[in-house]
């Protein structure tokens, strides 16, 4: 396994861990999470839809299946984290450092995923060209 793929899995693991902790807090530390969201200016009833969206999003990103849907999952996390940073700064409640770190992990994961996907596609393309050339030689 090359270093780019190892880096991708490490970064994805770190990001996923933070998201799973967030989901855990949404579901099993409900009252404290409601209080935190209300301090940041968000209504408490957003917790369950946000938890569901994060579960679906992280499953899509981890499984890395589907074309356009993975981009929507990355976009959803991007907006979630950007709004978290804005909320922390606008309410002067914390500095939003955790959201900034998660945003960096998300961006790095996205870039590495795209690079690995492009490498796989180019390797597949080269492999198919080699097979086609080999098959055409045997036909003659």
Descriptive notes:
This protein has one domain (3-139). The two termini are 38 Å apart. 15% of the residues are buried. By secondary structure, the chain is mostly helical. Helix 1 (3-28) packs across helix 2 (30-39) and helix 1 (3-28) runs antiparallel to helix 3 (47-63). The protein contains five helices and no strands.
Supply Rg. Answer: 20 Å
DSSP helix fraction:
over 70%
Q: Output the structural class.
A: mainly alpha
Total of DSSP H or I helical runs spanning 4+ residues = 5
Instruction: Give the strand content.
Output: under 5%
* Contiguous uncertain segments of 5+ residues: none
Q: How far apart lie the N and C ends?
A: 38 Å
Number of strands: 0
- SSE pattern, N- to C-terminal: HHHHH
How many separate structural domains?
Answer: 1
List the main descriptive attributes of the protein structure presented here.
140 residues; 5 helices; single chain; mainly alpha; elongated
Short description:
With 140 residues, the protein is mainly alpha-helical. The chain is 86% helix and 0% strand.
Secondary structure blueprint with pairings:
Blueprint: H1 3-28, H2 30-39, H3 47-63, H4 68-91, H5 97-139
